[in-house]
Amino acid sequence: MSTMLDATPAPLGEFRNQPPTDFSKRESRESFKAALAQARAKFPVAVPLVIDGQRIETAEKIDSVNPAQFTEVVGTSASASAAHVDQAVLAARAAFRSWSRTEPEERAGVLIAAANLLKARKHFFAAIAVLESGKAWREADADVDEAIDFLEFYAREMVRIGQPRRLQHYLLGERNDLTYHALGVVGVIGPWNFPLAIPVGMAAAAIVAGNTVILKPAEQTPVITSLWVDLMLEAGLPPGVLHYLPGRGEVCGARLVQHPDVNMIVFTGSREVGLHIIREAATVRDGQHFVKRVVTEMGGKNALIVDGSADVDAAVPDVLYSAFGFSGQKCSACSRVILLEEVYDEVVTRLKEGAHSLKIGLPEHPATQVGPVIDADAAAKVRRYVELGRSQAKPIHIGDVSKYVGEGFFVPPSIFTVDSARHALAQEEIFGPVLTVLRAKDFDEALEIANSTPYALTGGVHSRTPSNLRRAREEFQAGNLYLNRTITGAIVGRQPFGGYRLSGIGSKAGGPDYLRQFLVARVATENMMRNGVASLTESAVQTWED
Ligand code: NAD
To answer: Fewest CB within a 10 Å sphere: which of 180, 266, 324, 498?
Structure first.
């Protein structure tokens, strides 16, 4: 029998990160292989639009292919038009009133239910990430773990922030309350490189804060995100709260940004598109009642400094993993390594040897370290930089991918040395497996080179000199600085993630400030010294008792 008590969500307990799968265990490997087969059996997955819980097909379709074997179609998605955006915004506005008034604990409960479903299907989701985005097993597993963490973390954050707080009493008989309220309809625009974790993080934060969401995934990875949308509905999310609009950025993405009834845009992607969105969102259009809030997480040109005191045995594998993991397509990837004179020759030699032994191959094979890049455009862009490196820089290593080209979007993992920090290879985000080596005469110059790009996303230092580590903390311009370790793989709650300068605007994802971006704070001040009281209200009793 249902009682009032049954409706009260259980307290959430302390946040804990989802542990990575231990692939050294045979049963994990077997289970993951089975998940790959299970995922493949569903190809091509049909991905419709989802508006107000209704699945809608469109005449235009977008194929999502396996970047490692591009003849394999992972899914075929519908493609939303501007009119579909308008339809979704209308439905999202209608749902906002009740969802925004749902208790924070209840909203958090939906995220926890979704996290539990995702934990139970972790290998299946990771298998889709391997086949749709070309991630190696470990990277795909981490993508799903991060999505689970975001759900668990933001659920708890909302319960914390959702508590109304009484502010100081200035006068006897005055009561001041600070409360947080949802903004309205939020447009979420995602990238392909963390096709689950990033859209889930942005959308779940908006949802748990009481907003209604229209989610537009990247063209390259609509399948995995659509499976999460289904999972949220299964977890009990009311259908009007989350709408799914796969499609072209310049069509449905652009309309979402321009729509007068979308109060906030949360974007992760390239600097070019991010800055365009900031400009577009600044224009107030007919019927608009809200200055759009914009959060844009953008690119980087991340550097790792290795000084003369560094443990080279530790530094070299950290540089190689940071530069070539997921083919250099993490926004946090190391794309510049700055070597001090004393270690320059040794580290360059060791990088060359290490790069030779990188295991290139199909991401579905467990030993693969470097797979393809995401699509033909990305491959062409990386190849242009490799050619630039051949002609204008000194190649240290250019990998051999001839065995794979023709079947997938493989490009050679490459390392070049350049003489100037102003060189295009040292300034521009390539977003592929290309590492540029620079030489610095001392730590001052190393920091100067590290800070010479307009970005500030991640950075790192390998050093056993405490004063250098201290200086790096002060002077290295990076949203996330890593000392004596790899510079990728931020963990929710432990390493809140995000950059500044031209790397983005907004508070760090997976950190204590993130959710407030999706809320407005209101203060209510009440004069409690009435000239007579019509009836002894609850609030009056409370204040007199304080
Ligand atoms: P992208 O900018 O090409 O696309 C991102 C999204 O924007 C896609 O969904 C796309 O369809 C959409 N879009 C394109 N044009 C649009 C328009 N005119 N209006 C609205 N939406 C539009 O980026 P990408 O290639 O998917 O991702 C790679 C980039 O993302 C890299 O630069 C990387 O550094 C960055 N990134 C940054 C972070 C971070 O946290 N800072 C994390 C991941 C990726």
So the answer is: 180
